[in-house]
Design a protein that fits this description.
Layout (H helix, E strand, L loop, with lengths): L4 E3 L17 E6 L3 E7 L5 H11 L8 H9 L3 E10 L5 H15 L7 E9 L4 E9 L8 H15 L4 E7 L3 H9 L3 E6 L9 E7 L9
Parallel strand pairs: 1-6, 6-7
Antiparallel strand pairs: 2-3, 3-4, 4-5, 5-6, 7-9, 8-9
Amino acid sequence: MENRKLCLHPLADRARRMPGTGALARLSRYNGGVSFMLREFDPSDFEALWRIDQACFPPGISYSRGELKTYMRRRGSFTLIAEERVEAGAEPAKRKKASAAIRLAASAAVGNSIAGFIVAEGGSRDSGHIITIDVIAARRGAGLGSRLLEEAEARLLKAECRAVQLETAVDNISALSFYKRHGYHVIETFPRYYANGVDALVLKKDLAEVPENFR
């Protein structure tokens, strides 16, 4: 059973590379010389990603190490990292403050520059799937989830996927609102889909709606 999820807000639910933009791409700039870059997953990232997932989601929705690793290794899957970069010209005190925010949000064990990630896959029948989007608490509401989703959609489109689907819990109002803002609509309900017994909504989007600048 699939278990796709979204972690962008405090009350939110819950690698193989594909052709696409492999280079770092500027995501956003914040006060104090902090910017975010998208990059490819590296195997050395795995433990940090798993710990972020544990911090984002409750038991029954968060992934075990084995589950997360399995999804990331599936044929056609890819993982993108949103990484915080403090620019060389930033003031030392501001660099320290930015780093401390990351450690506070994701704990010392996750205290690196990763602010979020997305796992997605190109599926069969010309349809892709979003498996999970995770953004640490200190960086939610800054557009990281949107940028990760848009980049994943663009890659799926390049992989000849005409649509993308995902699942989210029926009580995850923030996730449902987020996906609807990005053009997704509910097409089905899966009863007791999650391990904690919560139903899932299946959402779908036509990838013809992806903006030209992300293709």
